[in-house]
Amino acid sequence: MSKRLAIGIDIGATTIKGGIVDVLDGRILFQKKVETLALQGPNSVLRQLNFLIKELMFENKYGEFSGIGVGAPGIVEIGGGVVKNPPNFSDWNEINVGEILFKEFRLPVLIENDANVAALGEAKYGAGINFKDFLFVIWGTGVGGGIILDGKIFRGPSGGAGEIGHTTIDYNGPVCNCGNRGCIESYIGQRYLSERTREKLMRLANPYKDSKILQLVNGKLELIEPAIISLAAAQGDEFAKNILLEAANLLGISLASILNILDLRVVIIGGGISESGEYVINQIQQSLRSRVLKSIKNDAIVIKAKLGNNAGILGAASLVMEL
Ligand SMILES: [Zn+2]
User: What is the rounded average pLDDT of the residues 108-114?
Assistant: First the structure.
Protein backbone atom coordinates (compact mmCIF):
# COMPACT_ATOMS: atom_id res chain seq x y z
CA MET A 1 0.00 0.00 0.00
CA SER A 2 2.93 2.33 0.54
CA LYS A 3 3.30 2.92 -3.19
CA ARG A 4 -0.29 3.95 -3.72
CA LEU A 5 -0.08 7.71 -3.33
CA ALA A 6 2.07 10.16 -5.23
CA ILE A 7 2.19 13.82 -6.08
CA GLY A 8 2.08 14.50 -9.82
CA ILE A 9 3.29 17.86 -11.11
CA ASP A 10 2.89 19.17 -14.64
CA ILE A 11 4.98 22.29 -15.29
CA GLY A 12 3.74 24.30 -18.25
CA ALA A 13 4.79 27.70 -19.55
CA THR A 14 1.65 29.37 -18.15
CA THR A 15 0.42 27.13 -15.32
CA ILE A 16 1.86 24.52 -13.01
CA LYS A 17 -0.72 21.83 -12.30
CA GLY A 18 -0.42 19.44 -9.42
CA GLY A 19 -2.43 16.55 -8.08
CA ILE A 20 -2.62 13.94 -5.37
CA VAL A 21 -2.81 10.74 -7.37
CA ASP A 22 -3.73 7.18 -6.54
CA VAL A 23 -1.21 5.62 -8.91
CA LEU A 24 -2.74 2.14 -8.74
CA ASP A 25 -5.96 3.16 -10.45
CA GLY A 26 -4.96 6.51 -11.93
CA ARG A 27 -7.36 8.64 -9.94
CA ILE A 28 -6.64 12.26 -9.14
CA LEU A 29 -7.92 12.69 -5.59
CA PHE A 30 -7.23 16.40 -5.37
CA GLN A 31 -5.77 18.92 -7.77
CA LYS A 32 -4.71 22.51 -7.85
CA LYS A 33 -2.89 24.85 -10.19
CA VAL A 34 -0.83 27.99 -9.89
CA GLU A 35 0.60 30.45 -12.38
CA THR A 36 4.08 29.49 -13.55
CA LEU A 37 5.44 33.06 -13.74
CA ALA A 38 7.93 31.72 -16.28
CA LEU A 39 8.88 35.19 -17.50
CA GLN A 40 9.82 36.35 -14.00
CA GLY A 41 12.80 34.02 -13.86
CA PRO A 42 13.66 30.68 -12.22
CA ASN A 43 13.31 31.80 -8.61
CA SER A 44 9.70 32.80 -9.14
CA VAL A 45 8.93 29.50 -10.86
CA LEU A 46 10.58 27.50 -8.09
CA ARG A 47 8.66 29.49 -5.47
CA GLN A 48 5.38 28.71 -7.23
CA LEU A 49 6.30 25.04 -7.48
CA ASN A 50 7.20 24.92 -3.82
CA PHE A 51 3.96 26.64 -2.85
CA LEU A 52 1.88 24.23 -4.94
CA ILE A 53 3.49 21.13 -3.44
CA LYS A 54 2.97 22.51 0.08
CA GLU A 55 -0.68 23.10 -0.72
CA LEU A 56 -1.07 19.53 -1.95
CA MET A 57 0.56 18.22 1.21
CA PHE A 58 -1.68 20.39 3.34
CA GLU A 59 -4.78 19.04 1.59
CA ASN A 60 -3.65 15.42 1.79
CA LYS A 61 -5.86 13.21 3.95
CA TYR A 62 -5.33 10.02 2.01
CA GLY A 63 -2.11 8.57 3.39
CA GLU A 64 1.63 8.77 2.94
CA PHE A 65 3.22 9.91 -0.31
CA SER A 66 5.73 7.60 -1.91
CA GLY A 67 7.25 10.33 -4.03
CA ILE A 68 6.91 13.36 -6.27
CA GLY A 69 6.78 12.93 -10.06
CA VAL A 70 7.36 15.97 -12.26
CA GLY A 71 6.82 16.60 -15.96
CA ALA A 72 8.89 19.55 -17.15
CA PRO A 73 9.37 21.24 -20.52
CA GLY A 74 12.81 21.33 -22.10
CA ILE A 75 15.50 18.70 -21.86
CA VAL A 76 15.45 16.62 -18.73
CA GLU A 77 18.59 14.75 -17.82
CA ILE A 78 18.03 11.01 -17.72
CA GLY A 79 18.09 9.67 -14.20
CA GLY A 80 18.81 13.09 -12.74
CA GLY A 81 16.75 16.09 -11.81
CA VAL A 82 18.28 18.71 -14.07
CA VAL A 83 15.92 20.64 -16.32
CA LYS A 84 17.68 22.39 -19.22
CA ASN A 85 16.46 25.30 -21.34
CA PRO A 86 12.69 24.98 -21.10
CA PRO A 87 11.27 27.07 -23.97
CA ASN A 88 9.51 30.31 -22.94
CA PHE A 89 11.13 30.37 -19.47
CA SER A 90 13.28 33.48 -18.91
CA ASP A 91 16.89 33.12 -17.70
CA TRP A 92 16.63 29.37 -17.21
CA ASN A 93 19.67 27.41 -18.39
CA GLU A 94 20.20 24.40 -16.16
CA ILE A 95 18.54 23.89 -12.80
CA ASN A 96 18.54 20.78 -10.69
CA VAL A 97 14.86 20.85 -9.81
CA GLY A 98 15.03 17.31 -8.45
CA GLU A 99 17.66 18.20 -5.87
CA ILE A 100 15.86 21.38 -4.82
CA LEU A 101 12.57 19.53 -4.28
CA PHE A 102 14.25 16.66 -2.47
CA LYS A 103 15.97 19.00 -0.04
CA GLU A 104 12.70 20.76 0.70
CA PHE A 105 10.32 17.82 0.93
CA ARG A 106 12.51 14.79 1.71
CA LEU A 107 10.64 12.57 -0.72
CA PRO A 108 12.00 10.77 -3.80
CA VAL A 109 11.65 13.06 -6.82
CA LEU A 110 11.45 11.78 -10.41
CA ILE A 111 11.55 14.20 -13.32
CA GLU A 112 10.85 13.54 -16.96
CA ASN A 113 10.18 15.58 -20.09
CA ASP A 114 6.56 16.77 -20.24
CA ALA A 115 5.65 15.08 -23.54
CA ASN A 116 7.12 11.80 -22.31
CA VAL A 117 5.15 12.11 -19.10
CA ALA A 118 1.89 12.66 -20.99
CA ALA A 119 2.68 9.63 -23.17
CA LEU A 120 3.26 7.58 -20.05
CA GLY A 121 -0.03 8.81 -18.57
CA GLU A 122 -1.90 7.60 -21.67
CA ALA A 123 0.03 4.31 -21.55
CA LYS A 124 -0.82 3.62 -17.92
CA TYR A 125 -4.33 5.04 -17.58
CA GLY A 126 -5.61 6.33 -20.92
CA ALA A 127 -6.00 5.50 -24.60
CA GLY A 128 -2.81 3.43 -24.61
CA ILE A 129 -3.82 1.04 -21.88
CA ASN A 130 -4.27 -1.86 -24.33
CA PHE A 131 -1.13 -1.17 -26.38
CA LYS A 132 2.41 -2.04 -25.42
CA ASP A 133 3.87 0.05 -28.21
CA PHE A 134 2.64 3.32 -29.62
CA LEU A 135 3.57 6.76 -30.80
CA PHE A 136 2.07 9.58 -28.76
CA VAL A 137 1.59 12.93 -30.46
CA ILE A 138 0.68 16.25 -28.87
CA TRP A 139 -0.67 18.63 -31.46
CA GLY A 140 -1.13 22.06 -29.93
CA THR A 141 1.24 24.99 -29.62
CA GLY A 142 3.83 22.85 -31.35
CA VAL A 143 3.97 19.25 -32.42
CA GLY A 144 5.56 17.09 -29.78
CA GLY A 145 5.43 13.53 -28.74
CA GLY A 146 6.74 10.51 -26.99
CA ILE A 147 7.51 6.96 -27.99
CA ILE A 148 6.27 4.11 -25.83
CA LEU A 149 7.98 0.78 -26.49
CA ASP A 150 7.11 -2.27 -24.46
CA GLY A 151 5.16 -0.06 -22.05
CA LYS A 152 8.15 2.18 -21.35
CA ILE A 153 9.31 5.58 -22.57
CA PHE A 154 11.94 5.35 -25.27
CA ARG A 155 14.24 8.25 -24.44
CA GLY A 156 17.12 7.75 -26.83
CA PRO A 157 20.78 7.92 -25.73
CA SER A 158 20.53 11.51 -24.49
CA GLY A 159 16.84 11.81 -23.69
CA GLY A 160 15.78 13.67 -26.83
CA ALA A 161 13.72 11.01 -28.61
CA GLY A 162 10.20 11.83 -29.78
CA GLU A 163 10.86 15.21 -31.42
CA ILE A 164 8.39 14.41 -34.16
CA GLY A 165 7.58 18.08 -34.77
CA HIS A 166 10.87 18.45 -36.59
CA THR A 167 10.33 15.70 -39.13
CA THR A 168 10.96 17.27 -42.54
CA ILE A 169 8.08 17.01 -44.95
CA ASP A 170 9.47 19.44 -47.57
CA TYR A 171 13.14 20.33 -47.87
CA ASN A 172 12.20 23.64 -49.50
CA GLY A 173 9.46 24.37 -47.00
CA PRO A 174 9.03 27.33 -44.61
CA VAL A 175 11.65 28.03 -41.93
CA CYS A 176 10.82 26.40 -38.61
CA ASN A 177 11.69 27.82 -35.19
CA CYS A 178 14.38 25.12 -34.92
CA GLY A 179 16.16 26.76 -37.86
CA ASN A 180 15.44 24.00 -40.36
CA ARG A 181 13.11 24.13 -43.31
CA GLY A 182 9.88 22.29 -43.88
CA CYS A 183 9.42 20.63 -40.49
CA ILE A 184 5.86 19.44 -39.86
CA GLU A 185 5.67 21.95 -37.00
CA SER A 186 6.34 24.81 -39.41
CA TYR A 187 3.05 23.92 -41.13
CA ILE A 188 0.72 22.89 -38.38
CA GLY A 189 2.05 24.25 -35.06
CA GLN A 190 -0.28 26.85 -33.54
CA ARG A 191 1.54 29.96 -34.74
CA TYR A 192 2.25 28.61 -38.20
CA LEU A 193 -1.22 27.23 -38.78
CA SER A 194 -2.72 30.56 -37.69
CA GLU A 195 -0.43 32.45 -40.08
CA ARG A 196 -1.23 30.17 -42.99
CA THR A 197 -4.93 30.59 -42.31
CA ARG A 198 -4.60 34.38 -42.28
CA GLU A 199 -2.75 34.32 -45.59
CA LYS A 200 -5.33 32.04 -47.17
CA LEU A 201 -8.19 34.19 -45.91
CA MET A 202 -6.63 37.30 -47.39
CA ARG A 203 -6.32 35.56 -50.75
CA LEU A 204 -10.03 34.79 -50.85
CA ALA A 205 -12.01 37.02 -53.19
CA ASN A 206 -14.20 38.49 -50.50
CA PRO A 207 -13.00 37.10 -47.21
CA TYR A 208 -14.98 39.36 -44.94
CA LYS A 209 -18.31 38.37 -46.37
CA ASP A 210 -18.72 34.70 -45.54
CA SER A 211 -15.90 33.57 -43.32
CA LYS A 212 -17.08 32.22 -39.99
CA ILE A 213 -13.49 32.52 -38.76
CA LEU A 214 -13.49 36.26 -39.36
CA GLN A 215 -16.90 36.62 -37.75
CA LEU A 216 -15.63 34.84 -34.65
CA VAL A 217 -12.69 37.22 -34.29
CA ASN A 218 -14.70 40.29 -35.33
CA GLY A 219 -12.49 40.77 -38.36
CA LYS A 220 -9.32 40.94 -36.26
CA LEU A 221 -6.98 38.68 -38.17
CA GLU A 222 -4.39 38.68 -35.40
CA LEU A 223 -6.81 36.85 -33.11
CA ILE A 224 -7.02 33.82 -35.37
CA GLU A 225 -5.75 30.67 -33.70
CA PRO A 226 -6.46 26.95 -34.07
CA ALA A 227 -9.20 26.98 -31.42
CA ILE A 228 -11.07 29.58 -33.50
CA ILE A 229 -10.55 27.64 -36.72
CA SER A 230 -11.80 24.54 -34.97
CA LEU A 231 -14.87 26.37 -33.64
CA ALA A 232 -15.67 27.77 -37.08
CA ALA A 233 -15.37 24.28 -38.56
CA ALA A 234 -17.70 22.92 -35.89
CA GLN A 235 -20.22 25.58 -36.91
CA GLY A 236 -20.15 24.34 -40.48
CA ASP A 237 -17.55 26.59 -42.10
CA GLU A 238 -16.10 24.59 -45.01
CA PHE A 239 -13.04 26.80 -45.39
CA ALA A 240 -12.11 26.22 -41.73
CA LYS A 241 -12.78 22.52 -42.02
CA ASN A 242 -10.52 22.30 -45.06
CA ILE A 243 -7.70 24.07 -43.21
CA LEU A 244 -7.84 21.40 -40.51
CA LEU A 245 -8.15 18.55 -43.02
CA GLU A 246 -5.10 19.79 -44.89
CA ALA A 247 -3.16 20.07 -41.63
CA ALA A 248 -4.25 16.56 -40.63
CA ASN A 249 -3.14 15.29 -44.01
CA LEU A 250 0.34 16.80 -43.53
CA LEU A 251 0.61 15.36 -40.03
CA GLY A 252 -0.25 11.93 -41.43
CA ILE A 253 2.64 12.23 -43.90
CA SER A 254 5.18 12.86 -41.16
CA LEU A 255 3.76 10.16 -38.91
CA ALA A 256 3.95 7.55 -41.69
CA SER A 257 7.73 7.87 -41.78
CA ILE A 258 7.97 7.40 -38.03
CA LEU A 259 5.73 4.33 -38.06
CA ASN A 260 7.82 2.82 -40.84
CA ILE A 261 11.06 3.42 -38.98
CA LEU A 262 9.87 2.10 -35.64
CA ASP A 263 7.56 -0.64 -36.96
CA LEU A 264 4.71 0.83 -34.93
CA ARG A 265 0.98 0.44 -35.65
CA VAL A 266 -0.69 2.77 -33.19
CA VAL A 267 -0.72 6.56 -32.93
CA ILE A 268 -2.44 8.30 -30.03
CA ILE A 269 -3.12 11.98 -30.57
CA GLY A 270 -3.61 14.54 -27.82
CA GLY A 271 -3.34 18.32 -27.59
CA GLY A 272 -5.83 21.07 -28.32
CA ILE A 273 -6.21 20.62 -32.07
CA SER A 274 -6.90 16.90 -31.72
CA GLU A 275 -10.14 17.89 -29.99
CA SER A 276 -11.50 19.41 -33.22
CA GLY A 277 -13.50 16.33 -34.14
CA GLU A 278 -13.39 12.77 -35.42
CA TYR A 279 -12.97 13.96 -39.00
CA VAL A 280 -9.52 15.31 -38.15
CA ILE A 281 -8.43 12.05 -36.51
CA ASN A 282 -9.83 10.08 -39.47
CA GLN A 283 -7.99 12.26 -41.95
CA ILE A 284 -4.68 11.70 -40.13
CA GLN A 285 -5.31 7.96 -40.24
CA GLN A 286 -6.24 8.01 -43.92
CA SER A 287 -3.17 10.06 -44.85
CA LEU A 288 -0.91 7.85 -42.78
CA ARG A 289 -2.32 4.61 -44.20
CA SER A 290 -1.84 5.84 -47.73
CA ARG A 291 1.89 6.18 -47.09
CA VAL A 292 3.05 3.50 -44.64
CA LEU A 293 4.58 0.25 -45.86
CA LYS A 294 2.23 -2.55 -46.83
CA SER A 295 3.23 -4.59 -43.81
CA ILE A 296 1.80 -1.90 -41.51
CA LYS A 297 -0.97 -0.44 -43.66
CA ASN A 298 -4.03 -2.39 -42.53
CA ASP A 299 -3.17 -2.31 -38.85
CA ALA A 300 -2.19 1.35 -38.64
CA ILE A 301 -4.66 3.20 -36.44
CA VAL A 302 -4.92 6.72 -35.09
CA ILE A 303 -6.90 7.23 -31.91
CA LYS A 304 -7.63 10.17 -29.69
CA ALA A 305 -5.91 10.56 -26.33
CA LYS A 306 -8.21 10.10 -23.36
CA LEU A 307 -6.76 12.00 -20.44
CA GLY A 308 -6.83 15.54 -21.85
CA ASN A 309 -5.23 18.08 -19.52
CA ASN A 310 -4.75 15.48 -16.80
CA ALA A 311 -2.28 13.34 -18.77
CA GLY A 312 0.66 15.30 -17.36
CA ILE A 313 -0.32 15.02 -13.69
CA LEU A 314 -1.16 11.32 -14.02
CA GLY A 315 1.93 10.42 -16.02
CA ALA A 316 4.19 12.38 -13.67
CA ALA A 317 2.72 10.67 -10.60
CA SER A 318 3.12 7.27 -12.25
CA LEU A 319 6.89 7.84 -12.44
CA VAL A 320 7.11 6.94 -8.76
CA MET A 321 6.01 3.41 -9.62
CA GLU A 322 9.50 2.97 -11.06
CA LEU A 323 10.99 3.41 -7.59
ZN1 LIG B 1 11.78 22.32 -36.90
Answer: 95
Residue 151 Cα to ligand 1 middle (Å): 28
Share of the chain above pLDDT 70, in %: 98
Lowest mean pLDDT among 47-56, 155-164, 251-260: 155-164
For residue 62, the model assigns a pLDDT of 94
201 alpha carbon – ligand 1 mean position (Å)? 25
For CATH 3.30.420.40, list the domain ranges present in the chain. Answer: 5-123+310-322, 130-305
DSSP assignment of 26-54 equals TEEEEEEEEE--GGG-HHHHHHHHHHHHH
Fold classified for 5-123+310-322: Nucleotidyltransferase; domain 5 (3.30.420)
CA of 48 to the centre of ligand 1 (A): 31
Closest of 68, 170, 80 to residue 109, by C-alpha: 68
CA of 309 relative to ligand 1 center, distance in Å = 25
Mean pLDDT of 179-202: 93
Question: What is the distance in A from the centroid of ligand 1 to the CA of 173?
Answer: 11
Q: Give the pLDDT confidence of 55-65 residue by residue, as tens digits.
A: 999 999 999 99
Exposure string of 145-156, with b = 16+ CB inside 10 Å and e = fewer, is bbbbeeeebbbe
- Distance from the alpha carbon of residue 187 to the mean position of ligand 1, in angstroms: 10
Which fold does the domain 130-305 belong to in CATH?
Nucleotidyltransferase; domain 5 (3.30.420)
